[in-house]
Amino acid sequence: MKYILTIFIILMGYMLYAQEYKNSAGFRLGKTDGVTYKRFMNNNGAVELMLGFGGYDKGMQAYANYQWHYQIPTQFTESLYLYYGVGGHAGYIKSYSNRNYYTNDSTIMTEDQKQTYYAIGVDGIIGLEYRIFTIPMTVSMELKPYFEYYGLRYTQFRFWDFGFTVKYIF
Known about the structure:
The chain is mainly beta. 9% of the residues lie in helices and 66% in strands.
């Protein structure tokens, strides 16, 4: 019986050690939806890669952010973290616009224009992450403002890009 109890305690130690948070993958829902992968480089620093779809202009973009994570000490849990970071993105966006013009007989014509532009930009990120090691997964809410340059002459700044992220820890 002692041997079974000893083996059980040793195996539990290995199982708890396996719950170390190094990698996670999941999805983000928000103004910019996408699939995401995060890898911790050290205890507080992580690199997050995301392939985003949709967004404000219905395109597809690849994102890379470096993030700093800090535990928020509370009375209730030790699994709540604040994170912030910077990074960039590149991809394309689709622009839809209407053009009105007059014909020779003074009638107004409307023409729909669809254009695709390459885009590159700078991103920031700040969020709260709750780590659930019993499942193992993370749930987070984040704000991801960005500035981008597209179409060789257009720029845009979006501050209110909120998102909800669910990731599996492995």
